[in-house]
Amino acid sequence: MQGKLGKFFALALVSALFAFTLTAGKASADEADVKYRQAVMKSLGGHMASVVAIVKGQVDHKDHLAAHADAIAGMGKIVKDIFPEGSDMAADTKALPAIWEKPDDFAKAVAAFETASANLAKAADSGDMAAVGAALGPLGQSCGGCHKPFRQ
Amino acid sequence: MRDLAARLLFVVSTAVLPAQAIGQTAEQPDAVTRGKYVFDAAGCAACHTDTENDGPLLGGGRKLDTPFGTFYSPNITADPDHGIGDWSNDDFIRALRLGLDPDGRHFFPVFPYPSYTAMTEADMRDLKAYIFSLPTSDRANRPHDVTPPFGWRILIGGWKLLFFDPGEFAPDPAKDGTWNRGAYLVNALGHCGECHTPRNMFGAVDRGMALAGTSEGPEGGAVPNITPDPETGIGDWSADDLDTLFTLGMMPDGDFVGSGMADVVNNGTSRLTPEDRAALIEYLRTLPPIHHAVEAGDDR
């Protein structure tokens, strides 16, 4: 091949390969984001189920309540970070496009969860079981309040 | 003589007891209070309110994307021009019992009258009393966006002949009052089957697959199998698990329901009396288990 033309084709090929690896890299980054998010949500579920089991008296671990509630509150603080743009395009996610189409509504739902989980942690730390029970309702509602519009 | 007395007692008790069980709402003093209870259990607010666009309560306009087209719920406030303010009690009862408007036109069964038909007349009257006690809205109805022939109301007459079985709930005398109350709550008011039972190609629920879930629900998404099948349904759930679901919306793995079910829990099942909730749960747990895997996936 002639020098300049050859160089052009070589450059084009390298650019195409580079772009391909970039997008392939992005796709696997999205998958990793989704997996991370799912892990966070599953851990939330584990702690929620534990709190409910304790509050309902199914197990005798009232002394564990603070640990679970603190973990939930900790997740409450990070949940706004685990919905990066484009992570609804990955295959296995149930996150709906509405999250990015309605950022104000989504932010409100996230804030409700953050507040409700912080309240549960406060109640658990105080050891007041009545307060814990009272905090559980709004917390559960904040889960549904996000899942209803933003999850399939 | 004793034999006759025993027979009379049997007849009277089977006639009276189930009716008392169903009419539990009759314990409240006034129609509007009783009507609110029916309203919450029947879930009217969720479909007839356009919450997505901050629409007024029962003002209609809520979009329902079904496999047969896009429907917009009507205004059912007591506004005389834009709502149902000019409807008589008989009009209201006919709508729920027979799926007909006051001019005799058929409603699309997107309005789940195939379930509401089983409501008692007392519940229907109380429901109307409550709805008519609420603030009115003059929001105009939006026409449905349905592909022909599905938009032709006249065809619904034929559909009804084939698939619609109107009539008030008839308690099963072989079962106790609690079971019958649960059956009434699930099948008439809760209209659970409208989402949880798969439909045939004409959009009618397949009664042989009652509550066995579907991968294409009325709004497109997957709806779980809630029969007691241990593999594909909720057979491994305890009664307490179900109570936690219906009060908190939490499932045994700590996940929380989303979509339409969140409304059902928040506005409906969490507001039932504990006795009614227990009856609903008892009924669900005695249903025939149906092995039917629904492609819901549990990836979040």
Question: What brief labels describe this structure?
Answer:
heterodimer, A: mainly alpha, elongated, B: 3-stranded antiparallel beta sheet
Total of DSSP H or I helical runs spanning 4+ residues of chain A: 5
Compressed to H and E, one letter per element, the order of chain A equals HHHHH
Q: What's the name of the CATH homologous superfamily of chain A?
A: Cytochrome c/b562
Largest sheet of chain A: none
Total number of helices of chain B: 12
According to CATH, the fold-level topology of chain A is: Four Helix Bundle (Hemerythrin (Met), subunit A)
Average pLDDT, all residues of chain B: 89
Cα separation of the termini of chain B = 67 Å
Range of helix content of chain B: 40-55%
Low-confidence residue ranges of chain B:
9-21
- Residue share in β-strands of chain B: under 5%
**Please, what is the oligomeric state?**
heterodimer
Largest interface: A-B, 33 and 23 residues
Distance between the termini of chain A: 54 Å
Low-confidence parts of chain A, pLDDT < 50 over ≥5 residues? none
The Rg value of chain A, from CA coordinates, equals 22 Å
Q: What is the CATH C-level name of chain A?
A: Mainly Alpha
Specify the biggest β-sheet of chain B.
3 strands, antiparallel
Q: Give the number of domains of chain A.
A: 1
Query: How much β-strand is present in the residues of chain A?
Result: under 5%
Radius of gyration of chain B: 20 Å
